[in-house]
Amino acid sequence: MIKSHQSSSIEEVQTDAAKRRASGEFVRGVSGFRHAIGDPNFPPEENRYHLFVAFNCPWCHRATLARNVLGLQSSITMDVAFPSRTETDDSAGPNLWQFAPERISIATGSPLPECTSETATDKSYRLIKEIYAAEGSAEQSVPILYDKKEKRIVNNESAEIIRMLDANARKLGANMTENMHLYPEDETVQNEIDILNKTIYTTINNGAYKAGFSSDQQIYATAFHDYFQTLRELEKKLAGDDRPFLTGDNFTEADLRLFPTLYRHDPVYYLRMKLNGAKILDYPHLWRWLCRVYALPGVAESNALTHCKQGYFGRTWNKTIPAGPIKPMPYPLAYKHPELSTKR
Q1: Using 50, 70 and 90 to split pLDDT, how confident is the model at 142?
Q2: Phi/psi of residue 320, nearest 5 degrees
Q3: Bridge partners, 127 (sequence order)
Q4: Which among 94, 198, 234, 341 is placed 20 to 30 Å from 254, CA to CA?
Q5: Which residue has the higher pLDDT, 25 or 145?
Q6: From 132, 201, 209, 270, the catalytic residue
Q7: Quick check: is 209 catalytic?
């Protein structure tokens, strides 16, 4: 039996959050919209649901991955925000997610082709904040799973979104040549996924932010240590029986949740998050796993590293975006070459 979508979410403890933030620790907040596809007000139907995402956001990357690997591109529509948020001179204020397909990317000198206007609410909102405000909420985060029929937010917790898309894929109009179950019904596999998810979230997904956004040296050092300790453990897990994916022969939710962080590590997090202990290229089995996932249908199209670079570097330091890495070859082209890790 598949566990409820609520059990998929692993959240950071909020005890003394304000005090911890003041001391220099990055503390991730909790999402406020927790409905599910399958609830009485949100039945699983084709062409009813919509995703609001930003490609630079790894939590959004989870949702776009699930949409693509489950073959839901035609039945779940999507809008993509510009990777840079509003500036201090914006009439609405700074640091807000915005839809701005016409804006010029400082990374490319031209508009980003993946960016869109807002198309789901019939209001053509400019800001993600306005979608929340229409429901009386002050939240501002992405991703958002939205019901186009009821004009309501369903859910804004990425872990729950990917679980409900998986559980309802066929009813939502999935176009898959083979059945893919990100969270299979086998309880043994479910338990392994749950254990992996907890570790990956704590030390890798959120751990990267603990390292990169904390201003306390000890908190950074602990996050740095835990991040690379988990990479070593995952490398050993894959190497033990040369398994293709984390739980064995099949791509599952655990692989999906690990991929967005490792996809960003070498070209972005190594520098921006101060995670310069090693590159994924230095872990042969993890590198081949990363390339194997990247080769799955729909995965490469689920994101764009140009957005990631602009989103992370374009709003920090001097807003200059690193040109590299270029060796052993530029990214994401490198993800098409699993043999690169054996040549180092």
Answers
A1: very high
A2: -105, 130
A3: 98
A4: 341
A5: 145
A6: 209
A7: yes
What's the pLDDT tens digit per position in 38-96?
999 999 999 999 999 999 999 999 999 999 999 999 999 999 999 999 999 999 999 99
The pLDDT tens digits of the residues spanning 268-315 come to: 999 999 999 999 999 999 999 999 999 999 999 999 999 999 999 987
Total count of residues recorded for the chain:
344
* Mean pLDDT in residue range 163-190: 92
162: nearest Cα among 295, 58, 251, 256: 256
pLDDT of 210 > 50? The answer is yes
Are 198 and 246 in contact, with CB atoms under 8 Å apart?
Answer: no
Residue 238: φ, ψ to 5°: -70, -35
**Hunting for tokens 């704590």 — which residue is that?**
202
132 or 107: which leads in pLDDT:
132
Q: Which of 49, 57, 146, 270 is catalytic?
A: 57
Considering the four listed CATH numbers 3.40.50.1820, 1.20.1050.10, 1.50.10.10, 3.40.50.11590, the one that applies to the domain covering 187-343 is: 1.20.1050.10
Examine the residue annotation and report whether 60 is marked as an active-site residue of this protein. no
Nearest partner of 264 among 314, 194, 316, 204, judged by Cα: 204
